[in-house]
User: What shape does this take?
Amino acid sequence: MIATIALLLATTSADSTARPVPFATPTATALRVASAIDDDSTPRRRTKAVELSDAYYTRLRIHRIGSYTMLPLFAGEYWLGDKLIKGTSQQWVKPAHVTVAMGLGALFTVNTVTGLWNLYESRSETEGRTKKIVHTVLMLGADAGFAAAGAVGGNAGHSASDARLHRNIAIGSMVASTAGTALMWFWKN
Assistant: This one.
């Protein structure tokens, strides 16, 4: 619009020797106006390109697969632990509980290594940084909680209070890690 007014002013002058101005299309006028606005604005900072290795994406895939297997393992471990606390007489429950707990330990070891390695490799990437840091803190807290649950788990068979302590620490760790996982699944940038 400003360019159109400028064209009209240029064609009309005080003297009668005005030259005709070639027809200005709306698109050409809009381009002139847009370029005039861009020239007046402050320059924008370009985002820095971050190049990640192929190994980064392989570790990310392993990490994601681990996160999908975590919740079913939690459900199984809770069910087995609940059977132990209720005093089941079935002999297979305790070895199954220990086996699933060891599987969770292996899963959390793999996911901690792949997650921290990828966090380090993507350290110069600013997009989604807060989400990744919050996720990391929650998951490292869950790692510590599972280690503590394992440490007090040996005494869980000897007293009801130790069994409740073991269960409460494990459930708290499950909640922290589920929150950290849900954060990555549902918090979009």
